[in-house]
Amino acid sequence: MAPLEPWEKVIIDGETYPDTVHGQIACQDCHGGVQSSDKKTAHEGLIANPSNDPGTICGDCHPDVVAMNDTNLHTNLEGYWTVLNTRSVPENHDQISQMFGNHCNSCHASCGECHVSQPNLVGGGLIDGHNFNRTPSMTRNCTACHGSRVGNEYLGKHEDLRPDVHFRQGRMSCVDCHTSHEMHGQPAECEACHTGPEAVSVAPADHRYDGVQSPRCETCHVTAAIGGDEIEMHQQHGGDLSCQVCHSISYTSCDGCHVAVSETTGNPFFATDGSYLSFKIGRNPRQSYDRPYDFVTLRHVPIAADSFAFYGDNLLPNMAALPTWVYATPHNIQRETPQTESCDACHGNADLFLTIDDVYPEEIEANSSVIVDTIPAPVAELNATAPITATETVTTTDSTP
Amino acid sequence: MAKHKQQRSIEVKFVMGLALLVLAFLLIGCGGGAATKTETAVTEPSTEPAAGVDVAMALEEETSVGVETAVALTATMPITITDECLICHLDKETLIQTADPVEEVVSENEGEG
Questions:
Q1: Contact A149, A161 (CB under 8 A)
Q2: Which residue in the set A27, A257, A262 is minimally distant from B86, CB to CB?
Q3: In angstroms, rounded to a whole number, what is the distance separating the alpha carbons of residues B11 and A209?
Q4: pLDDT in tens, A10-33
């Protein structure tokens, strides 16, 4: 995505914008400033990004959306705090907060950064002459931030790896799965809409893989989940493997994010030691009603005990409280993968599983909940040692003359 | 004598009828003209609200037609036409000329993130 010229970032489309609903609102109502032909005077008190305060600006017309904004992960970045608070201790909160403000907070996205401009993280600028887009652009909004992993995988930007089938054949964009219902935060009462069995077993929603699974593959692929089709692997593994275990290919993992100090400016900056493509199946660290799977795909996240050493010593004393190989949902789904070739493509194939040999020694304790101790045996061995099931016993009895 | 009076009465009625007819035409003519002016005043701003200066000049020319028309046009003139924000932000050349110099900031951040 080429950077915008300064004038491109702020030019309004006079042909289309004034006729829109937002075009009926006077500029100063949202942006403040002063009516003047002198630029400096006109920009006194200017509010460049009005939706940073959505309650005041957007809430008059969009009260239902703004009401959920406090629980919107794009706004509150709560996902970061979930893991930081778990790995740290309250005494370190001030240093962690300082680090967060300098390095993590730029990932915040306001209403406008999805619906009218590019995210500030990639330089900002109006996307369509100040026209508000109900549906954000996949490449200029969504993957502008979610590009290094999700975007590159979904769009097939890794050499020799195909794009996700949903893009390649379905031409689907992010919002086809990740609807506004998911994007804008969580209603106060989940059970008001989710009245099914999950209503009585709602998992605490302090992690993106807790609670109701949304989006869910089975919403479209209805028969796959319940063994309703003719595919033997679906019938065998419909409930104990996440879909990605069979239908994903190699995806990005990262190592060692840390804060370094610039030799030229003395300012802190972040760097990751490396990123690489891998495919690892591990045990599900977050089994729940909605994610009952025994095995899921895992990726390594670039956290390390000394990641934030610039801001203080031992700021993450509870590193072992969470795995560094985490539940992952790669965005490179394929109908046919190396895993779907045969049963023994996975059974007996230690390369596909996260074993203790794949884990850094200092991270073994943290990953004890996801490391696979025993690789599923080849199918021939399983059949030889499998106990006779009740069904088979009945069948045998009935067939006896 | 009676015949003369009758002739005179017919003439008077003819003249009055003619006068009424002319008056009716005048009323219809004035009413139609007023309706046209009202339509112009209401529809003009909403058809080209985005044309900026051009529209403003066109409207100024039309205000010289008459006092009544000028008042109607001013009352419904869109705020965008005189909005200093739009005058600048609709014009590419102005934005280029008034842009602050770009300070190149080289990020030292490395790797995926």
A1: no
A2: A27
A3: 101
A4: 999 999 999 999 999 999 999 999
